[in-house]
Description:
Elements lengths: L7 H15 L33 H4 L5 H16 L6 E11 L2 E12 L13 H5 L37 H11 L4 H13 L3 E4 L2 E4 L1 H13 L6 H15 L5 H26 L2 E6 L6 E7 L2 E6 L8 E3 L11 E9 L6 E7 L2 E6 L8 E2 L2 E5 L8 E6 L5 E5 L8 E2 L2 E3 L11 E6 L3 E5 L8 E3 L3
Antiparallel strand pairs: 1-2, 3-4, 5-6, 6-7, 7-8, 9-10, 10-11, 11-12, 13-14, 14-15, 15-16, 17-18, 18-19, 19-20
Amino acid sequence: TDSTKFSIEATDAIRAYIVSSYGDNFCPKEPNVYKSKKSAQEAHEAIRPTDVSIVPSEIKEYLEKDMFRLYELIWSRSVSCQMVPAILDTTTFNIKAGQYLFRSNGSIVKFAGFMQVYVESGDDEAAEKDIKQGDKILPALTKGEKLKLLSVDPEQHFTQPPPRFSEAMLVKKLEEEGVGRPSTYAAIISVIKDRAYVESEERRLAPTKLGYLVSDLLLEHFPKFMTTKFTADMESQLDQIEVGETEWVKSLQSFYTPFKLDLDEAEKKIGDSEVEETDEVCDKCSQPMIVKWGRFGKFMACSGYPECKNTKQVAKEGSDGKAVSEDSVAEGSCDKCQSALIFKVGRFGKFIACTNYPDCKFTKPIDLGIKCPKDDCKGKIAGRRSKKGRMFYGCTAYPNCDFVSWGKPVAEPCPQCNNPYTVEKWKKDEGTSIICPESECDYKKPGVV
């Protein structure tokens, strides 16, 4: 429930408990009344203890840890919401140490009020560190008092990006944006975790590659519907339908008509544009294998589908994000530590890595044996992956050389314009063909080189 109301009986019981346990000065003359959000569903009371006299500390030994923490939270908030406000003095302490002056900003509690029972804190240690300097509670000090130095922590701070959401932070953000209801928050989080859109990293929700892919597709093809404002407006319309203020058929039509247009357009565009090529060849028909996403993650499928329905598992990666399988020794030595090099198999094919891993994490792509076409460049062309996982080809001399090609270069000069290389292109309706990358040249021939 997102109601803020208690029954009259419950309110009277809480106020009586405050007076008997903390004194008259902690209980306001009239009950505190809180304004509910416009979208609040107030068919039920706010969550509260059935009997306020059952203090958390008295039943701690009978409850499991999580059950106790939940009851303690419900009890503390229920009682504190009917207490008087706390009185704080905003204070700045100037602390002199020799020729240096240190300053600490914060607050001093003059009267605890509701803070006698409940003080809201962050949902985890990282959130605690994000507390603003001025929000800190300072101890009571007197002018001229000598302070004892406990420790010196020399730290250099850099501007950090906003922390990722924890589950609690995400729920709070959903509440602020008017998205979802208390009864749906748990389901929302379960869906994004069960579908592998996010994974937990140190109690934070980190998006997976599948999550990035789905988000990018939705934002590209359904921008009007991928906003918190749209979702909040839809929630509001559903509430209006529930109480009879809006006709559901008209509301549905206003949403579905533009959505259907975007859906039809997206179905035309997505198809081949999101194909993720690999270096693998189908065991059955020798056509290229492509990466697809299923409900259980990535897998490789034949590009000749539906004529060929061959599929393969994508090689799994270890916790370090590298390959789990090893292959033969590669030529040369590590650029960083001079150790031997080996071929390893990652999720999208082979690459070269240092044998001294994990002490040395040097890796490099396997070049195609084709010299970079840029003048005065001694590098070779190798396959790489963009941040979104798309395959492209660049020079091994990067960043000194900026050569890049989305098509796979082939060591075959163009017979029409004498360009030193051609590229491999694949289309679902045409298969693989060899073309010239020069925009003014129309050379093209079928077949895989």
